[in-house]
Amino acid sequence: MSPADASKKQYLLKFISGKYQGGEFPVAADREIVIGRSNELDVVLVEDMVSRRHAKITFTNDALTIEDLGSTNGTFVNGEKVKRAKLKEGDRVLIGTSIVRVALTDAVAGSGESREAEARARMQSAAQRTSNVKTMSGTIDEVPLVDLLQLFATSKKSGVLVITRDPYVGKVFLRKGQLAYASINDSAEIGALKAVYRMLAWDTGFFELQPPDEREFDQEIDLSTEGILMEGMRQLDESRRLLSTLPPVNARLGLAIPLQPPLKDLDERELSVLQAVINTGRIEAALDRVSYTDLEVCEVMSKLMSKGYLRVET
């Protein structure tokens, strides 16, 4: 961005989750904004996990920086705990239960003080609207699930992350930031890891971090959050590529009649997927019926169709 363009823009702190969700605060040039619980500060976040003087954001020499002020629970930028960091448009900052996105917007006429006063009033209005909300909430349109889970892992949060995407309700059980279990519509057919990988593909929906659930589950997840997310994003990319080569997920599939290729040439996984397709008749239902990941099922379906075992039914 050129200096001329930069002069026409200003940074905004947009609260996309937490008590102040929907609030915005402008960041003027050559200005230091202190965030914390104290009523004397520029941005007041009244919640238990926020320190009295938690962090400060400074905009000088065209550089936007954030600095943790020795807070008890830390300041996080894009899932990484920081002492001091440069910020750019699109960065997500976690302070307490508030997620703030850094945005650029057209500069607004008027004094910085008047704009800040208006912003404080809007934030208080947002806080009043959510005064009965005790949990972190927001939309995954604004905060993708992979980013949320990274934030929770680094900040070692515990709780049940509930993601609602009609007609599905996903749950991720977190223990100190690590994924212990996951489910979709409380279905026992969909394994925990498979549920996580599938939810990573959701790009719309509402999330809420509810209090911890200490119960133990059969076949709990024992992999690191970082490893799960890396593998999940890899599978997501591959699954999307494969799904683009398959019929729509609601298309009807069936056994090719007459069946030319011999069934004895199929391995156990291929036979399982073939049986699931025959029994359910649809790609979407078959994905739920077998224990393999969606990527593995899509790979097998693609092979079964290309080899002449399956066909689209009209």
Which short descriptors sum up this protein?
314 residues; 8 helices; 18 strands
Number of strands: 18
Q: What portion of residues belong to β-strands? A: 25-35%
Cα end-to-end separation:
54 Å
- Specify the overall morphology: elongated
Fraction in helix: 25-40%
Biggest beta sheet attributes: 6 strands, antiparallel
Could you tell me the CATH topology label of the largest domain. Answer: Tumour Suppressor Smad4
Gyration radius, to the nearest Å? 24 Å
Oligomer: single chain
Strand arrangement in the largest pleated sheet: 2-1-11-10-7-8
Distinct helical segment count:
8
Provide the low-confidence segments as ranges: none
Sketch the topology as an H/E string, one letter per element: HEEEEEEEEEEEHEHEEEHEHEHHHE
Q: Which CATH class of the largest domain?
A: Mainly Beta
Determine the structural class based on helices, strands and strand pairing.
Answer: alpha+beta
Number of domains: 3
Going by CATH, the architecture of the largest domain would be Sandwich
Average predicted local confidence, pLDDT: 87
Molecular structure report:
This protein is α+β, with helices and mostly antiparallel strands and 314 residues long. It has three domains: 3-129, Sandwich (Tumour Suppressor Smad4), CATH 2.60.200.20; 139-239, no CATH class; 247-312. Helices cover 30% and strands 30% of the residues. It contains eight helices and 18 strands. The strands form four sheets. A six-stranded antiparallel β-sheet has the order 2-1-11-10-7-8. It has a five-stranded mixed β-sheet with strand order 4-3-5-6-9, with no helix packed on it. A five-stranded antiparallel β-sheet has the order 12-16-13-14-15, with helices on one face. Strand 5 (55-60) and strand 6 (63-68) form a beta hairpin. Helix 3 (145-155) packs antiparallel against helix 5 (225-243), helix 4 packs across helix 5 and helix 6 (268-280) crosses helix 8. The longest helix has 19 residues, at 225-243. The radius of gyration is 24 Å and the shape is elongated. The protein starts with a helix and ends with a strand.
